[in-house]
Amino acid sequence: MADPGRAPALTPELAQEIAGETSAVIGLNVLITDREGTVIGSGDTSRVGSVHEASLEVLRTLQARTHSAEEAGRLRGVRPGITLPIVHDGVPVGTVGLTGAPRRVRQFGLVVQRQTEILLQESVLLRYRLVREKAREDLLRDVAFFDPESADPGVIVARAAELGVDLLLRRAAVLVVTALQEADAPAGPPGTLPAASSPLRTAREIFGDPHDVVAEMRAGRIAVLCRVSAGEEWAHGVEQRCRDLVHALRRRHGVTAHAGFGEAAADVPALHVSYADADDAVRIGPGALPGGDVFPVRALRVQQLLASTRPQARARFTGARLGGLADEPPGSPLRTTVVAWHESGFNLVQAAKRLHIHRNTLLYRLDKISKLTGRNIREPVEATAVYLACLVDQLGGG
């Protein structure tokens, strides 16, 4: 038999809900007691808090008992009817009683008893799922806010193992930010499970590997510790799953989303860095790579470094390097020419091909950029400085 000390509690809230609804359906008063025989739920709420003496014998024997008017009169807090034990995993957790003539209520007794036990089981399972949901959120927060100066990674690994999660497997952190976050939507009520059609459920469907850990950090912000394979091909798989999730969120839930992911890691400190990189990627990516929706941090390392400097320093840098080019909006022909010129290795043929323009048009643009910035854009050092200034400006640093 299970340990009585570990039997699930039949809460007054659940007991009153069951008793009230059942009484309304069958037209008979139903009361529920705890394992001490105290009434914690009743169709007749005046009986809540009283002692139902007949329940003590039923709890001791685990046998149903009927009580005539004469028998009920000799017991404290008892009316004619039937009393049955409520049992969970072989352990008595309370009783359910029906008031009325024993011959009439007997036919309802077993049905109400079984229904009560089923509802109790569902309540236990729900509480278990809520606890696991909270534990997964806490695990992701342990990784996200890990501080090597004050936290022991071994403790976090052990805590994860209790959830069936091996944090020493190779993983990458993924962050998905939806339009709900961009609109500062309030978080849902704490301690609730994701709805069947929620973005979190969709994320768990896309990241469905048994080793993936998915949780909602706050409204509109979903984090994943994604199991990845060995070698360098893992990034393509993660990027594709991120893209699948972004598209599914748009199609199923009508929300726009951006995803960023960090590098692969196989211990808690490295996972924390991967999470921080994913956070940077999803924050910087939309401005640095307009039109994209999935951003690997490895594609944004330069922008990440630039974004780490103080805004005032970034503003001074762009002002000193861009000159008249600052009036050209990001994405304009001259701005895109600067980027293509630098990223093509200052090669006229490759840059023109990348921009889909004639070589003479490229030369014209380079001359114009040199005049606007006051710097010879054909010199690699000067071109690099202007290129970085364009990136900073695109991040909002100007």
From TrEMBL:
Segments forming domain CdaR GGDEF-like: 151-284
Pfam families per the UniProt record, alphabetical: Diacid_rec, GGDEF_2, HTH_30
Signal sequence segment: none
Segments forming domain PucR C-terminal helix-turn-helix: 334-391
Residue ranges crossing the lipid bilayer per the database entry: none
Domain Putative sugar diacid recognition: from-to ranges: 10-142
Family to which the UniProt record says this protein belongs: Belongs to the CdaR family.
Protein name: Sugar diacid utilization regulator
Organism: Streptomyces abyssalis
